Amino acid sequence: MAQTRVKHQSIREQVRDLILHRIATGEFPPGHRIVEARIAEEVGVSPIPVREAIRELTALGMLECAPHKGARVREVSLEETIYALEVRVALETLTAKTAVPLPPDKLEDLEEAFEGILETAAQRDFVGFLEHNQVFHRTLVEASGNTVALRLWETLAFDVRTKFILEYLRTIDPVLIAEEHRAVVEAVRRGDCEATSAALATHSNSLIAYLRAESERRQREEAGESDND
């Protein structure tokens, strides 16, 4: 079997990111069993960092473990996705007020992520879009210096990268969604923390509204099926 090489520095983090990437792309769908020995062999490392990465992802709620069954990718419901987004936008609008104005290096990171969002949206590369989007939003939270908020935000990362978000990107013009980030970037460039917070809320609430409408539609369909029974 050909090996996928990783750097020996921070192996646990690289194995973790490999698993996360495969979850995001659908290669590891909900219910998929994470085989520790198989990943260790593929990456070319000992089982120890793989085991540590699995433990970390389990603690974050991305994987679930059962006795004698090992770790599997956890299924995230539509309702969980909505709740996670609501908590995340609350954290982001709060931390934006202390993050802005951004230091030059963080502003550069934000603008680079924004360019990546625009590029992947134009290419309809939805997985790439989500990866750049993750960097964009994380940069703002991290810049606030609020380590508690950042830790909470990171625990929500998996719940907001679900099949429902991918469906949203495929349903709505991804370029329009990408452009919603422009108001955030412009507010950050002006050093306006209140406008940054408001732009983040507007951007996230449009997604939440879409998912709530989808949830209500599904509930109506289920109610109709029950009536027919």
Average predicted local confidence, pLDDT = 88
> Which second-level CATH architecture of the largest domain applies?
Up-down Bundle
Q: Poorly predicted ranges (pLDDT <50, ≥5 residues)? A: 1-8
What is the number of domains? 2
**What about the largest sheet?**
3 strands, antiparallel
Q: Return Rg in Å.
A: 19 Å
Helical/strand content category: mainly alpha
| Strand content bin | under 5%
Oligomer class: single chain
Tell me the name of the CATH homologous superfamily of the largest domain: GntR ligand-binding domain-like
Helix-strand sequence: HEHHEEHHHHHHH
Number of separate helices:
10
Query: How many β-strands, per DSSP?
Result: 3
CATH hierarchy, class of the largest domain: Mainly Alpha
Which range best describes the helical content: under 10%, 10-25%, 25-40%, 40-55%, 55-70% or over 70%? over 70%
Give an overview in words.
The protein has 229 residues and is mainly α. It has two domains: 63 residues, Winged helix-like DNA-binding domain superfamily/Winged helix DNA-binding domain (Arc Repressor Mutant, subunit A, Orthogonal Bundle), CATH 1.10.10; 147 residues, Up-down Bundle (Four Helix Bundle (Hemerythrin (Met), subunit A)). Helices cover 73% and strands 4% of the residues. It is built from ten helices and three strands, in the order αβααββααααααα. A three-stranded antiparallel sheet has the order 1-3-2. A hairpin with a 3-residue loop joins strand 2 and strand 3. The longest helix is centred in the C-terminal third of the chain and has 36 residues.
